[in-house]
Amino acid sequence: MIKSWIFRRPHQEMYGTVPMASDRSSRRNLLTALIIASWYLSNIGVLLLNKYLLSFYGYRYPIFLTMLHMLSCAAYSYVAINFLEIVPLQHIHSKRQFLKIFALSAIFCFSVVCGNTSLRYLPVSFNQAIGATTPFFTAIFAFIITCKKESAEVYLALMPVVFGIVLATNSEPLFHLFGFLVCIGSTAGRALKSVVQGILLTSEAEKLHSMNLLLYMAPMAALILLPFTLYIEGNIAAVTIEKARGDPFIIFLLIGNATVAYLVNLTNFLVTKHTSALTLQVLGNAKAAVAVVVSVLIFRNPVTVMGMTGFGVTIMGVVLYSEARKRSKITSH
Fold first, then answer.
1. Which residue, among 306, 289, 8, has the nearest Cα to 128 in the 3D structure?
2. How far apart are the first and last CA of the chain?
3. What three-state secondary structure class fits 69?
4. How many angstroms separate the CA atoms of 206 and 5, rounded?
5. Where are the domains positioned within the chain?
6. Dist. CA 285–CA 277, nearest whole Å
7. Residue pLDDT, tens place only, 232-290
8. For the segment 62-115, what is each residue's pLDDT rounded down to a tens digit?
C-alpha cells in the first residue's frame, strides 16, 4: 500500500490531487505534536502507574514488575520490527557482541529495578528531582572509564545540579534514606549504561539501532531478573493470580503498565526521528517538571517551597550543562 502510494504520487501531483506543500507541512507538524504528546503521556503515565501499583495499590513487587516491563518490551519490539517493519531487523554477529549486549542488559536491569523500588518509598516529585542529576553521573563515569575530560564550563554547570538536589533533599517532607539511595543507584545506573553503550557498541559492525538494541536487551534483562524475583519476592505468579481472583482490575493494571513501559521506548525513538536528539533532551528537562506537578496534583504529597526551589535549581543546572556541552563540541570541531 505504501509503495503504491509512492508510485501514484507524481501522477496525482500532475492532476492536483495531492495536498499543497503548506498542507503537507501542517500535517507533518501535527504528527510531530502528537508524537511529542504521546511521549509525555507515556513517560509520565508509567511513572504514575508504577507509583500507584507499588505504593497505593499494595503490589509491592518491583523486581517482578520490572520483569513484566522487559517481557512486554521484548514482545512489542518483535512485532514492531518483524511485522510492522518500523526499522530494519539487525542481527547479533558474534559472541563478543552478544556478551556486550548482555552486560548492558545487566546495568539496565539494575537501573530500572532501583528506579521502581524507589517509588515504593519516595514521592514521584522527589524521584524526578534525583533523576535530573543524570548528567552529573554521566560526566563522572565518562571521566573514570574513558578519562574523557570536559571543559571547565561544563563542570561548573554541574554545580547547580548537585546544589539543587542538596536543597531538595534537606527539605523533602517524605524523605526516606533507603528510597533515596536506590534512586541514586537508578540514576547512576542510567548514566553508566549510556557511557558503557557508547564504548561497547562503537564499531560500525556492532552498532545497533535503539529499537533493535531493545529487542535483544529486553529478553536478556527478563532472564536476569527471573531468579531474583523468585528468590526475593517468592512465588509472585501465585500471589498475582490470588490477587486477581479478588480484584480482576489488577490484570488490567499490569498489562496497561507493561504496555505503557514499551510506549516510552517507542515514542522516545519517534521523537528523536521526527525532531532531534537535542530536542529530546530539552523535552526531557521539561518532562521532569510536568511529572512533578502532575504527581503532586494526583497523589497530594506535601511539597515545600525550598524543595521546589531545589528542583528548579537542578533543572536550571541541567539546561546550563546541555548548553555548555553544545558549545564545547562546537569549539572542539
1. 289
2. 44
3. helix
4. 35
5. 36-332
6. 13
7. 998 888 889 998 998 999 999 999 999 999 999 899 888 888 876 667 767 777 888 88
8. 999 999 999 999 999 999 999 999 999 999 988 989 999 999 999 999 999 999
- Distance (Å, whole) CA 221 – CA 243: 26
DSSP-assigned letter for residue 205? T
What phi, psi does 290 have (nearest 5°)? -65, -40
Helix residue spans in 234-276 (DSSP H):
236-246, 249-274
Contacts of 189 (CB under 8 A, 6+ apart): 107, 108, 110, 111, 114
How far is the CA of 284 from the CAs of 201, 250, 316, in angstroms? Answer: 24, 30, 13
Which residues, 6 or more positions from 136, have their beta carbon under 8 angstroms from its beta carbon?
158, 161, 162, 191
| Cα–Cα distance, 82 to 277 (Å, whole number) | 25
- How far is Cα 232 from Cα 177, in angstroms, rounded to an integer? 21
| Spatial distance between the Cα atoms of 330 and 92, rounded to a whole number of angstroms | 34
Non-local CB neighbours of 270 within 8 Å, separated by 6+ positions: 35, 38, 39
Q: State the DSSP string of 2-32.
A: HHHHHHHHHHHHHTT-SPPHHHHHHHHHHHH
